[in-house]
Design a protein that fits this description.
The chain has 7 helices and 6 strands, in the order H-H-E-E-H-E-E-H-H-E-E-H-H.
Length: 185
């Protein structure tokens, strides 16, 4: 079975009918929204890098194009110009620029870092060492003093916040006593 417009071989009547209906050589072919179809295949060139993009993607590309002048910044460390979403041009400059954040005081560190600096990283109830959460004794998440932070596994942390609190509270109290005694020495 051959298309009467272009001569293409089709496997059966159904595929021949569909092919002829849409064949590019058919003067009365059926394509709805021909204008939308041609727009999807039109490409435009980026004014900054001269690469071709579909019209629908061109505006997104322009926002992130490395040659777009609005995306070019100056590195605060070495004054080199670069185009990136990052603050500095390289890892080396980043290490220099953010060095002041590495040794910040405890009040600026996360509570888990503070807890594991002063307590062993294991659940005070069962000794779990792989997954350890941190519980705030007074439930004030702004109070990150080491004596207010207790390492617990996720299961026992849930116990503390449930009706089963009485089952784990003796272990926590014992840990607090030992910690306070160790701090006073």
């Amino acid at each position: 079975m051959q298309c009467q417009y272009c001569g293409k071989e089709c496997k059966n009547d159904n595929s021949l009918r569909n092919h002829e209906r849409l064949c590019k050589n058919n003067p009365s072919r059926q394509i709805s929204n021909l204008s939308n179809l041609t727009l999807a295949f039109n490409k435009k060139v980026c004014e900054y890098c001269n690469n071709s993009f579909n019209i629908s993607n061109l505006s997104r590309h322009k926002l992130s194009c490395v040659l777009n002048p609005t995306n070019i910044k100056e590195c605060p460390v070495c004054s080199k110009t670069f185009s990136s979403k990052h603050t500095t041009c390289s890892h080396a400059c980043s290490n220099s620029h953010f060095a002041h954040l590495r040794n910040k005081p405890d009040k600026y560190k996360s509570y888990t870092t503070i807890c594991f600096k002063h307590h062993e990283k294991k659940c005070v109830v069962c000794g779990e060492e792989k997954i350890v959460a941190v519980h705030h004794l007074n439930e004030d998440h702004d109070d990150n003093r080491p004596e207010n932070l207790i390492p617990l596994c996720p299961t026992h942390h849930q116990y503390v916040h449930s009706r089963y609190k009485d089952e784990v509270q003796p272990f926590i109290d014992e840990h607090i006593k030992k910690f306070n005694k160790k701090q006073s020495l």
